[in-house]
């Protein structure tokens, strides 16, 4: 692997850093943070997305003719790193930029591109993903939400779950069953659904961390125009695979690696000053061993992503490498968070607002959030199956 960047890539990084320095509020990440109230945080992120659009930092991988920058794979990795390093707010429309828009670019008709891409890149219309169902999560091809064609419309009935930001979204791309008699991978279609349509109801789900970005979404006789079918009827599985390839890519891993490293650095700071009977936590050889293992794993996370970058740049398609990346960072991050709680002791499990909480309760929050890493975007069991079958040639 070549770890050096070109002059053009260095200029790209510098341009982004300079923009972030002016776009983020003064003191951001140190004394100024996102609002704690969920509704206020939504408004804050919506305004942040407008800034991203005005600076041409939304959908940077999109072609220039559709409002993007035509960013290379390396530039997308740099973008993920720098956004994480600056602790920039998460885009509210990340599903629109990275998944919906990218899928429409690859498989949509010209009319769909003309209709949907401009408001996505301008962050005027926000998107959610309608894939998972109560009985079809890891086994995504088992979705039961039905779409029956009636004239120039599909009538959709069913339920989706874990629909991120559905309560704030104007549109949803959904995997639906259009042929109940076909093999499960063959009878699926990919629809674009207006979330203001009659018959849609949304129920936010309160998570263990206290947040409620996920939702249950119900469809009851929801009418969807036929022109909102992406690709051909019953070809939805192939199209959905494009969507998932960009959900698990190496760019995402690089951004996560920076954020995990920031969490680890905070843990190191606490260990350097937290008193014990024999000095501070960092003096304990068992603690040092656990910290050392976490440092190695977080650095290995970056190298695993860069290896995938090298393969793609050499001409390989995005494929099972994404499963290796997803499997590794999910469990490495979980081990790091478990180590943090082991090292810091009972006070680490106290939540924000408790006077005795460590570092404002951040370690408890990170630990709780990490439990979902090995489930969403494809569970670890599914990733192992993909690696075994597609990389190692093992039988199904």
UniProtKB/TrEMBL annotation:
GO MF annotation list: flavin adenine dinucleotide binding; oxidoreductase activity, acting on the CH-CH group of donors
CDD domains per record: ACAD_fadE6_17_26
UniProt keyword annotation of Disulfide bond present: no
Span of domain Acyl-CoA dehydrogenase/oxidase C-terminal: 234-392
Any single Gene Ontology cellular-component annotation: plasma membrane
Domain Acyl-CoA oxidase/dehydrogenase middle residues, every copy: 128-222
Cofactors (names): FAD
Keywords: FAD, Flavoprotein, Oxidoreductase
Domain Acyl-CoA dehydrogenase/oxidase N-terminal intervals: 6-124
Superkingdom of origin: Bacteria
Transmembrane parts of this sequence: none
Glycoprotein is among the record's keywords: no
Similarity comment: Belongs to the acyl-CoA dehydrogenase family.
Protein name, per record: Acyl-CoA dehydrogenase
Organism of provenance: Altericroceibacterium indicum
